[in-house]
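Section handout, structural biology tutorial.
Before the tutorial, make sure you can parse a SMILES string by hand: atoms, branches in parentheses, ring closures as digits. In the record below the ligand is manganese (II) ion, and the chain has 498 residues. In the tutorial you will relate the predicted structure tokens back to the input. Do not try to memorize them.
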Amino acid sequence: MAYKDMREFLQKLEAEGELLHVKQQVDWKLEMGAVSRRLCDLETKGINSPAVIFDNIKDYPGGRFFTNSMCSFRRYALALGLDKDTTPAELVHVFQDRINNPIPPVEVSRDKAPCKENILTGDDIDLTKFPVPIWHEFDGHRYIGTFHAAIMRDRNGPWVNWGMYRACIHDKNTMGLNIPAAIEMKNGPLIHRDYVAKEERMPVVLAMGDCPTLPIVAAGMFPVGCSEVEMAGGLRQAPYELVKAETCDLMVPANAEIIIEGYIEPHEVKMEGPFGEYTGYYGGREAPKPVIHVTCVTHRNDPILIGSQEGVPFVDDHYMCAISMSALARNHLINTLNIPGVKDVYFHPAANWNFCVVSMTKTFDGAANTIAHALWSSKIGYQAGYADWIIVVDDDVDPSDINQVLWSLVTRCNPYDDIHMVQRKGGVNVLNPNIHFEERMKMRSASGICIDAAWPWAWRAEEMRTGNQVIPPTSNWEDWPEHIRERALEIVQKELGK
Ligand SMILES: Cc1cc2nc3c(=O)[nH]c(=O)nc-3n(C[C@H](O)[C@H](O)[C@H](O)COP(=O)(O)O)c2cc1C
Ligand SMILES: [Mn+2]
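Predicted structure of the complex:
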């Protein structure tokens, strides 16, 4: 059953032992960030660690802040209403199936929308009344938007985009929105650009704290024209509830904790940044970014602000986007391009989604290169510059198991023959520090590598003829006769009890 809102999700986390309430007083300056980081690090070390809600924040009596909501595949699975032991490979399949069955949102009236419990306009607007953290020591600002949806409508039509673009507080009623011109092909900047060209104000809404599918779709690499709210409906298997905004004609999530409405003047910018990023490095210097003038804040009673740690893997973002990117890439290869033989796709979360493994039954020579170029020309590749590293493995290898991938790499890839590098393949990740900052901004292009870690296709054809070209893997469990395996199971069970 779908979570009606973030509070139902919190209840579920609590029931599953996945939520920590910190009752000690914690400072919004760096301390909340450090506690969140510590919990991320425990999880990274293999020690299950929970999401956290800060109940006692310095300077904010009654204020609450929720983070690390998706900082494990367990909680990601729970967010989709699945069992928390669901494997990453299964999560990818479920995600793909569900987004292929989108569900349009429904409109609810204002009196049925909890996000309207408090409506603040004019002088009553004060963003500093929320317990907004300073996450990292050298962050330029307090960031109020780190796990939200920035909602904008295409100037030329009905398409409404939900994208996650970090938002900082400049003062009580203005914010900075990081929709940099350099990433012109992400959907947010693409939409914004049209308003600037026509010298028009762009309405924008920030929505935070709702059913956990909201951040998942807002950060998802959905194509131009895609309605993220319909994807969220598909993912939660129930329509999303929307309500009219107060000061613009956008629709906003009715069950959100906090809604911030405003507009961006076409040419106004203010210095924004830096910010500690998911790459594990600061994302460049401060730079001029668009400014949001807040026209209205609506929020639930006792609102809970949600945010996410960014930094060296693993943080919320790595788990969350590994699944959506893998599913979108798999969809692209199988359902859009119909490349025969593709089985599974996995973006390893430890590699900032820049290391993508594809398993396939090779049906033609050059299949690995075809896969690489197909991904480089999908939105994930050309827009955001993810997937510089493509590794193709055979269908007996699980791409989400890095040990199997490494084994395949050293036994089936002959480096000189099977590694193909492409200069200036297009699609640069402006945050990837492996290219010098100036170069990244100037060239807007990165290089790519395709590693063919599957047996050459020709060997398979040959094997069919001669039966002896490819050495099958040995000492796989399945390689023993069944009666011997049964006996071995018995022996181990008796000795170890498992
Ligand atoms: C916590 C978080 C913060 C993000 N901040 C930004 C940002 O400031 N600027 C940006 O271009 N992308 C940012 N992203 C990535 C975008 O949300 C992502 O590329 C998304 O696909 C954009 O959607 P759109 O192209 O539909 O607008 C962020 C992602 C996460 C998870
Ligand atoms: Mn989009």
